[in-house]
Design brief:
The structure is a single chain. The protein has 16 helices and 21 strands. The mean pLDDT is 97. It is globular. It is an alpha/beta fold and 522 residues long. Strand 4 and strand 5 form a beta hairpin. The strands form 6 sheets. The protein has a 7-stranded mixed sheet, sandwiched between helices.
Length: 522
């Protein structure tokens, strides 16, 4: 049996440098190859069955709405029930597979994805509207999750070696981490490979079987991942794939008495509804369901007068507009002390004006938002913002046959304004002026959320105060508030940002297991 000492230490998958011609050519080749596969049909996977349904989800390219990335079969409640029964049957055998063997599937999947990295990234470009760097980072993170969680499961299986219990004379005491059962994975569109794969494999390597319901906007990348797991030999029924309507099959599975846990990433509204529905004990339900939820944020960058202002402005723009602001970690607020406010705002505006909007496949810095619903919502918030602050740049529909919006910067915004309090999930930045650095931290904390935050300062006493008093799950000093790396920056937030699950950290797999103590008299 493999031990953690026999596995190489975890290291993050390196990002691709697209300034190197060979890497650029490889990505262009992958983009051309993936485009040739447009319009294919993708089935539902339940156990060993592949099911094509008449009703389908049409996945379009948000950067060019005339292009259909693929047609994905759409599940119904009867099919969701079939998936549940298959997952229940398979759990009885999968739970007995050794942790090292379960980890082996993740290692193999990570290796195959690494070999086909540009193919997966190209699909992210087309289906999610990511530019090359954002897509490459998404794929690298998916690889990281598989590598990290595989190692972590092996480590947990040896917990009595690494974390021995208090010794009692005449007793043999052990803790083992056993799987929970059948879990429902509800994944988001914004990291349709990394978060989808990470939440899925965390549950699987822990010994659970899962039913995966991907985001309606990005089901093809999820289908490709399911195919990859089949390719590396994951037993049928461990991973069941049922795209479909959240209100129809999502709620059905959340409320199902045999559902043991729900892993959800998405909006606050949906997350709270899941939390509420999962809390109700159904007839014949013999456990309290576990909910692992990541529900967004209203993240911010705080800048005081001692900061490196160029670095702060660059971080504000990168945090606000990376992937069009469609990140739960996006820095959609900037809170700047008055004495350097005008200077930082000028730098932010200058950098924002340089951002070109265009096709993701051409690697434009700013691409489309995900769909028409998101576009309409963001434009409504921009109209609200015009009443709450001064729009200095952007905010209009941009040219292109897709869901394009010019990055918008609002200044002189009251801290209580809606665009300072509500998650927009688009390329909209609100900037507030405050009297001093302590007030800036108070303004930062004045939100329902608490996911990521950044503080720029060169004053060590202030930094020490900030580390204790800025209330968020992931706090960054003198760097942007996006871009958490697996293993280095375990990710999760406070308050209405979710259950602070710390994905990519050493506690994460505990959420998918239960600790069993055995004590034997000797």
């Amino acid at each position: 049996m493999i031990t953690i000492n026999q596995v190489s230490p975890f290291v993050n998958e390196p990002f691709t440098d697209f300034t190197i011609d060979t890497n650029k050519q490889a990505m262009q080749t992958a983009l051309a190859a993936v485009k040739k596969e447009f319009g294919q049909q993708y089935p539902i996977y339940i156990g060993s069955k592949q099911i094509l349904t008449e009703e389908q989800i049409t996945s379009i390219n948000p950067g060019n709405v005339n292009e259909v990335v693929g047609y994905v079969s759409k599940a119904t409640q009867p099919l969701a029930e079939q998936a549940m029964q298959e997952a229940l049957r398979t759990f009885e055998t999968w739970k007995n597979v050794s942790p090292a063997e379960r980890a082996g599937y993740l290692f193999r999947a990570a290796d195959v994805m690494r070999q086909r990295k540009h193919e997966f990234s190209a699909l992210l470009v087309y289906e999610a509207g990511k530019n090359w760097a954002e897509a490459d980072a998404d794929t690298a993170e998916a690889i990281d999750f598989m590598e990290f969680y595989a190692r972590e499961m092996i480590r947990l299986s040896e917990t009595n070696i690494h974390h021995p219990l208090t010794r009692i004379e005449g007793e043999n005491n052990q803790i083992t981490y056993i799987p929970l059962g059948v879990g429902i994975i509800i994944s988001p569109f914004n990291f349709p490979l990394a978060i989808m794969a990470g939440t899925t494999v965390a549950a699987i390597v822990s010994g659970n079987t899962v039913i995966l319901k991907p985001a309606d906007s990005t089901p093809v990348i999820a289908a490709k991942f399911v195919q990859l797991m089949k390719e590396v030999g994951l037993p049928a029924g461990v991973l069941n794939f049922i795209p479909g309507n959240g209100a129809e099959i999502g709620e059905y599975l959340v409320e199902h008495p045999k559902t043991r846990f729900i892993s959800f990433t998405g909006s606050r509204e949906v997350g709270c509804r899941i939390y509420e529905r999962a809390s109700k004990v159904q007839p014949d339900q013999i456990w309290l369901k576990r909910v692992i939820a990541e529900m967004g944020g209203k993240d911010g960058v705080v800048v005081d007068e001692t900061a490196d202002l160029d670095a702060a402005a660059a971080a504000i723009v990168a945090s606000a507009f990376g992937f069009q602001g469609q990140k739960c970690s996006a820095g959609s607020r900037a809170i700047i002390v008055a004495s350097v406010y005008d200077e930082v705002v000028a730098k932010v505006i200058e950098l924002t004006k340089k951002l070109q909007v265009g096709l993701p496949e051409n690697n434009a810095p700013i691409g489309p938002v995900i769909d028409q619903k998101s576009l309409d919502k963001i434009l409504k918030y921009i109209e609200i913002g015009k009443k709450e602050g001064k729009l200095l740049v952007g905010g209009s529909r941009a040219e292109g046959n897709g869901f394009y919006i010019e990055p918008a910067v609002f200044v002189d915004v009251d801290p209580k304004a809606r665009i300072m309090q509500e998650e927009v999930f688009g390329p909209v930045l609100a900037i507030a002026k405050v009297a001093n650095w302590k007030t800036a931290i108070e303004v930062y904390n004045d939100t329902d959320y608490g996911l990521t935050g950044a503080y720029f300062s060169q004053n060590e006493e202030r930094i020490a105060y900030t580390l204790e008093n800025m209330h968020c799950g992931n706090l960054y000093i003198n760097k942007k508030c996006t871009g958490a790396l697996v293993g280095a920056h375990p990710f999760g937030g406070f308050n209405m940002s979710g259950t602070d699950s710390k994905a990519g950290g050493y506690d994460y797999l505990l959420l998918f297991t239960q600790a069993k103590l055995t004590s034997r008299k000797i």
